[in-house]
Amino acid sequence: MLISVQFLRALAAWLVVGHHFMQLFFNFEVHNALEYLFVEKGGAGVDVFFVISGLVIFLATADKALTPWRFMLMRVARIAPAYWFYTLLLALLTLAVPSMFPDVQLALGHVLLSMLFIPAQHPAGYGVYPLLDVGWTLNFEMLFYCLFAVALWVRGDYRLWVVAVLLYLVCYLIGPALDLADGFYRNDIVLEFLMGIVIGMLYRRGLCRARAWVPLLGIVVACVMFYHGADVPRALEWGVPSAILVISCVALEPYFQGSRVLKLLGDCSYSVYLIHVLVLCAGLWVVKRTGIDPYAMLPVCIVFTAVGAFASYQWLEKSTYRTLKRWFGIEESAVLSRQKY
């Protein structure tokens, strides 16, 4: 397990939390420099996630006798249960307290498509989003998993090229020709998965090692690129600095090793990502009814998100994964080898 990657997972998740806090509570109105960072740059946490995903999936499958079917079972067992749980929880809460989620409209067909990771127009009319709107990133993740599963038929050194070709075909040729998911997949953000695979290949070849000042300089460069931005496609504006940030932190792995706190924060990051919008919506609902200062509600939301994510990881993610692992017959050795990274 790369602790540096765990740290970045946690950082990315909480950046997204800050971004959505500013969206829900202030409609992206900026009052100071910190708010500006969360409003304008907080969304880059998703790009860091995507680069990390490419890195982790490549490393987890390198030199492993893993069939495409077994790989997909492992990914579904790991990702889907928690997402399904919070999607259904949102649906139930919307039925019970609709005023808490005024932008949510329920439609059975849309709920089912959301659960199946199939992009569809939200019934409320604000774009191609699942019921639990942060799940739009998981739709890309599942596409990447499916294409990477196909690439498992070839040797590890060729998987980057196979995935790249498949992404191009699906996202830029077949998808637009068939008007697949209203053009949802025609998004250059998918290139960030490839960046992660490249970093994984470099790491496997021992090329992510350097004197500490080199990756530290890389982190500074990435932060400067994030801050200034540019009028270019997202994969360049946020994807490239995300890749620089990831490879720089991986090069600093010896300085992260042994930190149980960072490992735990990374472990909980997926649940943080899934649960935080529910918590923020509940917090906003309380603010509107009591007149409490939104900034006084922020630490409450942070605590509830952190505690809820910890409980979710311990008793939802881990327990369901172990149960499904037994059902699917996934060998313990295969799981442990995957978790190495």
TrEMBL record:
UniProt record, GO biological process: polysaccharide biosynthetic process
One Gene Ontology molecular-function label: acyltransferase activity, transferring groups other than amino-acyl groups
Acyltransferase domain residues: 4-311
A GO term from the CC aspect: membrane
Keyword list, A-Z: Acyltransferase, Membrane, Transferase, Transmembrane, Transmembrane helix
Coiled coil: none
Transmembrane portions of the chain: 42-62, 83-101, 134-153, 160-178, 184-203, 210-229, 268-288, 294-316
Source superkingdom: Bacteria
Name the record gives this protein: Acyltransferase
Native species: Pseudomonas trivialis
